[in-house]
Write a structure and sequence with these properties.
Number of helices: 11
CATH topology of the largest domain: Dna Topoisomerase Vi A Subunit, Chain: A, domain 2
Number of strands: 13
Order of helices and strands: HEEEEHHHEHHEEEEHEHEHEHEH
CATH class of the largest domain: Alpha Beta
Structural class: alpha+beta
Number of domains: 3
Helix content: 25-40%
Radius of gyration: 21 Å
Strand content: 15-25%
Distance between the termini: 43 Å
Strand order of the largest sheet: 5-6-7-8-9
Length: about 325
């Protein structure tokens, strides 16, 4: 595969180096296309055995698909890049293979400029699973029922499926804590204030304390990483709750991007799901037509991808259970 990667880069006139202070054993390095002119020393390494790549200056500039890197370097389409990289319909990667390959990219290399992050992530002592049994937690339950429209009988099921916590003190005090997992490992979390007039409604865990930043994660990834009929791509966690909780038993699930743009690391995760579902549907807030079309263009490589527009200014997270079920039935 080493010769193939080198020939591929040469065919697009992409300069690479095979030795130097930033080149780990078994890799070649190029100038990172995301760092641009800030990278004058070929900081992005490509593993010649696996094709996985990563920039040691930034934890966010990495991926497991050579085609994604090729698109960024050359501007060609995803389809052309996949053909050039000879990537099949699906790529089987063991859960720990990716981290092993990425660690090899920086073996013996000074990584002082890397984006700060943590090797592990955990809840602080003031965060407890949301059960609704204590007086403090009853305020969180009230927010979910009165503020978000979940029937009281459903709150405990929602909390269990998404492992919701509630912080009674500390930096996340009076926030419902939404954990973000990948391969069973807690990557980061964010907290939603239970007060409508809060100056800061959402608060994300600092990047230095996270394994991965929120913007590089796919929310609800572990719950949906199995065969199903349809996968909805939405923006926030509460959008996921409404669509996913009331439909997952029918093989209809949802994931959240945390924004209206999809990052390279998120595309890698979505690529793992592309063969798990028969179709994919983008659902953003009502009125966000331009944002929906942009997202559709970014994810055009997903099979049977379409957009479902909500009427008016309706937010998927504000749907009632009946509306969430009806939304799925509308898309046939």
């Amino acid at each position: 595969m080493a010769a193939d990667i080198k020939r591929l880069l040469e065919s697009y006139n992409i300069e690479f180096v095979e030795s130097g202070p930033n080149v780990a054993k078994g890799n070649i390095n190029i100038q990172c296309p995301w760092c641009g002119i800030e990278d004058r020393s070929h900081h992005l390494g490509i593993n010649l055995a696996s094709g996985m790549w990563g920039c040691w200056r930034s934890q966010q500039h990495r991926g497991r698909l050579l085609s994604k890197l090729l698109v960024k370097l050359t501007g060609i389409s995803q389809a052309e890049a996949r053909r050039a990289a000879q990537e099949g319909e699906s790529i089987a990667v063991q859960p720990d293979d990716y981290e092993k390959a990425l660690s090899g990219l920086t073996e013996g290399v000074n990584t002082a400029e890397s984006t700060p992050h943590s090797e592990s992530c955990g809840f602080d002592p003031y965060m407890h699973k949301l059960t609704g049994r204590t007086r403090a937690q009853k305020r969180a339950v009230h927010y979910l029922t009165e503020g978000r429209g979940f029937p009281p009988a459903h709150v405990r099921g929602v909390a269990r499926r998404y492992d919701l916590h509630f912080a009674i003190r500390g930096d996340f005090a009076n926030r419902i804590v939404v954990p973000v997992y990948e391969q069973g490992i807690l990557q980061t979390y964010l907290g939603r204030s239970i007060y409508k007039d809060a100056a800061l409604r959402y608060r994300a865990l600092d990047a230095a304390d996270s394994v991965k930043q929120v913007k590089d994660c796919i929310y609800n990834f572990d719950n949906v990483n199995r065969p199903g009929r349809r996968l909805y791509i939405v923006e926030g966690a509460f959008d996921v709750f409404k669509i996913d909780f009331y439909n997952f038993k029918e093989g209809v699930c949802a994931v959240g991007l945390f924004n209206m743009n999809v990052e390279s690391a998120q595309q890698d995760l979505l690529y793992e799901l592309r063969d798990q579902y028969d179709e994919f549907v983008i659902v953003l807030d009502g009125g966000q037509v331009a944002e929906s079309l942009k997202l559709e263009a970014q994810l055009g490589w997903l099979p049977n991808l379409r957009i479902k527009y909500l009427e008016g200014e309706k937010d998927p997270g504000d749907l009632t259970p009946k509306q969430a079920i009806a939304l799925v039935k509308e898309v046939t």
